[in-house]
Amino acid sequence: MKPYVYITRKLPEETIVDLTELFEVKMWDHEDIPAPREVILKEAQKASALITMLSDKVDEEVLSAGESLKVVANLAVGFDNIDLEAATKRGIIVTNTPDVLTETTADLTFSLLMASARRIVEAAEYIKAGKWGGWSPYLLAGHDVFGKTIGIVGMGKIGEAVARRAKGFGMEILYHNRSQKHEAEKELCAVYSSFEDLVTKADFVVSLAPLTEETRNLFTADVFAKMKKNAIFINAGRGPVMDEQALYDALKNGEIAAAGLDVFEKEPISADHPLLELPNVTAIPHIGSASTETRTTMIKLCGANVKAVLTGDSPKTIVNKEVLQ
């Protein structure tokens, strides 16, 4: 009997050929609608491998649903949706998709920064609504990007890639991270900063921090109050690192100038979400790595990891390496 692989979203058949040739593979019927929890639980009872998305909660109940599960391949860099400790105790390998999406996500992050600074989305909606009656000096005037100070919170590979883009715009680069990045400091003239100094000095505060107990609710009302009044907050990392109500209040009250958000506390958000009411919020639906090329590469990496585990090889990008010891 072939090992059984379950995929929690509908993926293009051509991206999973290596799996369908070797294993029994089943996918959820929808690309943009998450597989219900009861479906994931049912499929986990017989699955040897799960290919999951960041929105899928893979907790102990899922991990212990059956006896055959050997690998959970997450289609993301992050894996805070997976109970890593429970998986490790059960000898289940967890993999992710780092590196292959670094440059794509950095492109999106800097695009979001620029769109927020220059009010691109607001301006596009303005002209589509037929409001453009003529030229005026301060019509939809935004903020310069070149020569400003960017503060990057979470200086991983994506953070470094964003810093390289910032250097091209002649920006002063501050960063805060669990550890100093000496090579980045040499290459990019980036300056290591305390979190408090960064948020008070930066014109653009960019969060790329992973979600941990230390970073959850990192951006509070007190933090937003310390930022410059013309500061722009960008979050392309994890939604729960920010207090959304505090961000709303800061934007509404003019404590900061604008925000660009690719992530939210709870996703997806509805059209009546309070932040969407504000004209100085540029909001997009968690599309950091969403280029056709990168998403295809991510899917194939998940498939390669599953194939490796189920055929007795080591996966390329394992999160819990202690399982192999």
Description:
The chain has 325 residues and is α/β, with parallel strands linked by helices. The protein folds into two domains: 128 residues, Rossmann fold; 182 residues, Rossmann fold (3-Layer(aba) Sandwich), CATH 3.40.50. 33% of the residues lie in helices and 14% in strands. It is built from twelve helices and twelve strands. Strands 8-7-6-9-10-11-12 form a seven-stranded parallel sheet, sandwiched between helices. Strand 10, helix 11 and strand 11 form a beta-alpha-beta unit. Helix 5 crosses helix 7. The longest helix is centred in the C-terminal third of the chain and has 19 residues. It is an enzyme of class 1 (oxidoreductase). Belongs to the D-isomer specific 2-hydroxyacid dehydrogenase family. GO terms for molecular function: glyoxylate reductase (NADH) activity; glyoxylate reductase (NADPH) activity; hydroxypyruvate reductase [NAD(P)H] activity; NAD binding.
Instruction: Tell me the strand order in the biggest sheet.
Output: 8-7-6-9-10-11-12
**What is the overall pLDDT average?**
97
Low-confidence spans: none
Distance between the termini: 28 Å
State the total count of DSSP E strands.
Answer: 12
- Note the total helix count: 12
- Class by alpha and beta content: alpha/beta
Report the principal-axis shape.
Answer: globular
- How do the helices and strands follow one another from N- to C-terminus? EHEHEHEHEHHEHEHEHEHEHEEH
CATH superfamily name of the largest domain?
A: NAD(P)-binding Rossmann-like Domain
CATH topology of the largest domain: Rossmann fold
Report helical residue fraction. Answer: 25-40%
CATH class of the largest domain: Alpha Beta
Strand content: 5-15%
Overall radius of gyration: 21 Å
What is the number of domains? 2
Main pleated-sheet profile: 7 strands, parallel
